[in-house]
Amino acid sequence: MAEEMQAVVKVRGEPNGTELLTVDVPRPGVNDVLIKIKTASICGTDVHIFNWDAWSANRIKPPLIYGHEFAGEIVEVGNNVKNAKVGDHVSGECHIACGYCFNCRSGLAHVCKDTKIFGVDVPGIFAEYAVIPAANVWHNDPALSPEICSIQDPLGNAIHTIFSTDVVGRDVAVLGVGPIGAMAVSICKNIGAAQVFAIGRKNTYRTELAKKVGADFTYLAADDVKGDVMDKTDGKGVDVVLEMSGNTNAVVQGLDLLRPGGTISLLGVYADKLTLDLSTQVVFKYATIKGINGRLMFDTWYRMKGLLKNERIANDMKTIITHNYEFKDFQQAMEKMRSGNSGKITLHVGD
Amino acid sequence: MAEEMQAVVKVRGEPNGTELLTVDVPRPGVNDVLIKIKTASICGTDVHIFNWDAWSANRIKPPLIYGHEFAGEIVEVGNNVKNAKVGDHVSGECHIACGYCFNCRSGLAHVCKDTKIFGVDVPGIFAEYAVIPAANVWHNDPALSPEICSIQDPLGNAIHTIFSTDVVGRDVAVLGVGPIGAMAVSICKNIGAAQVFAIGRKNTYRTELAKKVGADFTYLAADDVKGDVMDKTDGKGVDVVLEMSGNTNAVVQGLDLLRPGGTISLLGVYADKLTLDLSTQVVFKYATIKGINGRLMFDTWYRMKGLLKNERIANDMKTIITHNYEFKDFQQAMEKMRSGNSGKITLHVGD
Amino acid sequence: MAEEMQAVVKVRGEPNGTELLTVDVPRPGVNDVLIKIKTASICGTDVHIFNWDAWSANRIKPPLIYGHEFAGEIVEVGNNVKNAKVGDHVSGECHIACGYCFNCRSGLAHVCKDTKIFGVDVPGIFAEYAVIPAANVWHNDPALSPEICSIQDPLGNAIHTIFSTDVVGRDVAVLGVGPIGAMAVSICKNIGAAQVFAIGRKNTYRTELAKKVGADFTYLAADDVKGDVMDKTDGKGVDVVLEMSGNTNAVVQGLDLLRPGGTISLLGVYADKLTLDLSTQVVFKYATIKGINGRLMFDTWYRMKGLLKNERIANDMKTIITHNYEFKDFQQAMEKMRSGNSGKITLHVGD
Amino acid sequence: MAEEMQAVVKVRGEPNGTELLTVDVPRPGVNDVLIKIKTASICGTDVHIFNWDAWSANRIKPPLIYGHEFAGEIVEVGNNVKNAKVGDHVSGECHIACGYCFNCRSGLAHVCKDTKIFGVDVPGIFAEYAVIPAANVWHNDPALSPEICSIQDPLGNAIHTIFSTDVVGRDVAVLGVGPIGAMAVSICKNIGAAQVFAIGRKNTYRTELAKKVGADFTYLAADDVKGDVMDKTDGKGVDVVLEMSGNTNAVVQGLDLLRPGGTISLLGVYADKLTLDLSTQVVFKYATIKGINGRLMFDTWYRMKGLLKNERIANDMKTIITHNYEFKDFQQAMEKMRSGNSGKITLHVGD
Questions:
Q1: Is C48 a catalytic residue?
Q2: Rounded to an integer, what distance in angstroms lies between the CA atom of residue C205 and that of residue C199?
Q3: Does D43 touch chain C (CB under 8 A)?
């Protein structure tokens, strides 16, 4: 096996601090696996690290190989590993949980108090090889391409958010039409949502993408969304709001669109504070607000595997992956992602 | 308005006891509506009454206008009626509930202790006009044809059964491929079931229909179903069984196909007794068995309205309605239904 | 039957605008019942009306008989009434729902869009007789006193809030220790909550009352609640927060005490706006926020009936009713309620 | 540390095949802990092994140290163990799960396909020392005695069964009043069940015990249970049946007592076959039947820890432990257990 590899490293805490370097191939511990990466995909979190914003400056300790969305093949396993073997085609859950705290033992491992995320807190997968704990390994359906397998982390976010509510046969508003918003639109429509209203801020590239994968109606923030939604729902409002924009104005808009007794689930990261009139917006409305992050380990993954057997869903995911770059062109890929004129972007790392 | 009308009446308690007669148009009470029937559809229950089997002999008191599945237009309303008006396009929930017992006040009106079913306990809708309580009225989506609207009662049964479980992204076995079984297959696939295994007894007309509306795999009772299902589910078994055949052998088969921790929901009417080894088939398997009947009033109806906005589902329903007869040809329609070589059969009553 | 009666009437929109007047006994419509009131109890809403605050000025149209919590005996029923008869001992759900909208037909009648509340929007029960719709009648357990029966409306609020979460065997913080907070403390402890932390603002009369009915630990707002709660929950935080104070600072405190994955349910009416950092307080915490009002019609009432069979709970309710005034001393009762040095206050109206 | 220890060993596959022997103290593997047993308690399963019935003959491979309910102190830990240390006071979940199959990763580890039970499939804890996997360790509340800690396995069974239903404020029938039935009665009453009907077969010792820990009404199989239950539930029937007798006649009786829409959960091991009329007993009744075994790992354990903070529950458990024998008097303890004239029986092994 190779002893050196190419890796995307945040070498310095600054906007220009990312470099493609030659580094040692990492060695797996007794409970780990070593994976040859085939495809990686770029998350909004990676853009934050690339840009070196306030969140990154606070959380990331350079030098760090970042990236956490991938598909690959196992090339070595630790002595204590029983659930994986060399040659397995896998992706991985990026939350490394302790396994023994209250959350881990109550079905909430994704909010384990001591959780570490690879590509954020420990070395990630923007590299030719990567080590992850065997407990985080997910075996991929051989029928799926590495590109689709590599986006299961964000698709899992979307599915986790959707299944925190009840969308089948219901009217749904999806706020925010970035890659995860588009995935949510597709899943909602493909599991029988009555009407999906997809609302972007200003980028028509992305509302168009939402439309391609099934949105019944798309809007920009400046449109009269409320009037139209009320009209199309017989004055009831939507049953479910999926907030995926990270914009607090969208949360306020979502609560306004929501019917009495409905649920709004929040996947975004919100830079601004939210101000609420709890009585009218929540209490008298009998509304439920849910904060969502990560994926249920591994209920969400199993449900995702089942959903991806559906050809319409798999095809929509292909549509949502709008660009595929060679690994060496990482900087270009990041620039494209930052432009907003893309869906999901994958990187071809190896075969 | 007309004072007389044509109606299908069980006049005598015998197999040849059904006649098309001219009778008085019924008069609505203060809490009732009078409906001009456009389309009626034929339920298995109607076949029982037509055949005059043991169940019918015990329950039905001739003379009785039977039938309970319909779509029509309101032509008169009682003085106390607030939720419906002349000209409304409606169908109706056939369970007449008291509204005040524990069940009615706990979201279980469909199992109200004093429930009466129209077309069974009180006069039904195989007629040019029919009276039902305003509380039972369901307003139809104007985008749907009367044929599709008329089958919401059995489609509601299928949806109620499906939503007593968790099929999205899961493997599902549907046992029994009559009209409701076919509806269940379509809904499961259209809401994202991973794989649907449809199992009939011996009638290939109906397994073919199940295939047309989305079954991934179809079987007859004589096939090696277990081996194939285990193979296709990585040895796990199906997550959910929907038993819609009314055959106790199918229940046993369903429990055998079910994975540990799975759910089997039973919609059938079972003439034979079932013998179970509770320890191995239920307790150690951590299985859940649910008896289902009717539809949630009106949660199931709202969800159905949302699902029918989905074009694929609406089209499948058209496929499942294999025959449409003129009202006067009622006897022929019943003969076709009895043959088993049909899906759902509707009757064109008026315009 | 008497033709005139004594009633508490808001005659003028001002703080001194409440008078005890002689008025006509109301007449029931066909769907109504006439009730001879035995006991009424005073709600915070009644204090708002008495005080004539901003909310009242906006909502109440004098002259109005107010009050909505009661126990009494039916003395007359309308022609169309089937679920009640003269001599029945009853209380009543104060939300008058239309019965036919989406909410009413989906188990959410308490948030019916056209809901009217008696004692707020239509005449109430601070009177010797009152008319309510038969649909709102609740038959009381004959084993219970009229005093306890009269407080089922607020007790139902508390139970509805508690059952929107999962408190059995869990750690619970109750914020706000007015009468409903005290009821919540009692119910939580009597259904097996692990530890109940009751937090008041500054009134020790009420934290003492909370202690009497089972709070494991009581605090005032100035105390170091966080440190103590974390210590007593092994650093985990509480599983459930029941916010019953109507104070937005308490909401912030509640979110701070809540463990990852926990639920905070809000029963209060919040005069101030709430400002949240959604990312840290909700999203990364995987928290659920539920707005609660009213009672499930009638699931909450049935559960309450079952809980009140428990002697410990019934005794706690007696403890929580700290004062009982004669009807004629209504003004004194209101003054006592306004002082904060009371639990629940009942009025003896008739026998 | 000692190198030899006393242990209860099934040495031969026959009724007289149990002996108290001196054997080597076992050695923990890297992922295991070695525990000094303080208290063990006797399960019905142990009686089966002692008696050497058909089930035992099929499952158990002598020689085997049996027993699986205990409390003790950790005296050694494997190199890879992170969640436990020497000196910890612990009990243990007896199901050893693989951790990686669908069930294990879906919150259903207790029905892991490769599950092994210590004291059944691998060496157990009727001994001075025992080895279990660290993953199975449960840290006990220091406020509880070793006797109470040792019965958490069966108490967990009872709690798991209860929480598969909804008993708070509801009417419950508990069928079977052995130790687990008595535990169920206590928990139901202490979490606010409205009325608990406890039904034994013929042993008044045990119905008396059920009464002591809170049963509102007790019956023997020969009594007119149905008439009395219907009378006391206003003709409705019970909302929940907890079947803990392992007798199929009791299952039939339970379904008969159950209200429409109710749930019956089955914890028993059933030697006889059950014959059902599915239509009347399940389908038209809208009944749910749940098979239960084991405990949720570890949701049930956390809830149990919370419930045991309740003094009434802890005291009831003391009442249910009717006998405590010295370890050397194991044979006498088994004889007492077989007599039926006991509640739970514990063995004092060490300090």
A1: yes
A2: 12
A3: no
| Nearest neighbour of D288 by CB, restricted to B110, B278, B290 | B290
A8 and A133 both lie in a single domain: yes
CATH code (residue A209): 3.40.50.720
Please list the ranges in chain C whose pLDDT falls under 50. Answer: none
Q: Residue D318 domain-assigned?
A: yes
Q: Which residues pair with B36 in a beta bridge?
A: B73, B129
Q: Do A168 and B193 touch (CB under 8 A)?
A: no
What residues are paired with A19 via a beta bridge?
Answer: A9
Chain C positions touching A110 (Cβ under 8 A) are: 286
The predicted pLDDT at position C321 comes to 98
DSSP B118: B
**SS (HEC) of B244-283:** CCCCHHHHHHHHHHEEEEEEEEECCCCCCCEEECHHHHHH
Over residues A275-332, the pLDDT tens digits come to 999 999 999 999 999 999 999 999 999 999 999 999 999 999 999 999 999 999 999 9
Average pLDDT, chain D: 97
Q: Which of A111, A248, A286 sits opposite C278 (nearest CB)?
A: A248
Chain D 53-82, residues with CB within 8 Å of chain B CB atoms: none
Distance from CA of B285 to the nearest CA of D (A): 7
Q: Is the pLDDT of residue D7 over 80?
A: yes
d(CA B89, CA A67): 56
Distance CA D215, CA D217 (A): 5
Closest-CA residue of D relative to C309 is D194
A280 catalytic, yes or no?
A: no
Which range marks the domain in which residue C259 is found?
Answer: 165-291
Structure tokens at B289: 């068995």
Q: Which DSSP string corresponds to D205-261?
A: HHHHHHHHTT-SEEE-TTS-HHHHHHHHTTTS-EEEEEE-S--HHHHHHHHHHEEEE
- Residue A1 clears pLDDT 80, i.e. is over it: no
B190-200 as b/e, with b when 16 or more CB fall inside 10 Å? bbbbbbbbbbb
What does residue C273 show for φ and ψ, rounded to 5 degrees?
A: -75, 155
Q: What is the C-alpha separation between C325 and A35, in angstroms, rounded?
A: 77
Catalytic pick among C18, C48, C161, C300: C48
Same domain, B14 and B121: yes
Test mutation, A85, A93, A96, A105, chain D, max D CBs within 10 A? A105
Q: How many Å apart are CA B300 and CA B183, to the nearest integer?
A: 14
Measured between beta carbons, which residues in chain D are less than 8 angstroms from residue A83?
Answer: 99-100
Interface A-C: count of C-beta contacts within 8 A: 118
User: End of a domain among B271, B291, B311?
Assistant: B291
Measured in angstroms, the CA of B93 and the nearest CA of chain C are apart by 13
Whether residue D77 is contained in a domain is answered as: yes
CA atoms of B148 and B128, how far apart (whole Å): 18
% of chain B surpassing 90 pLDDT:
97
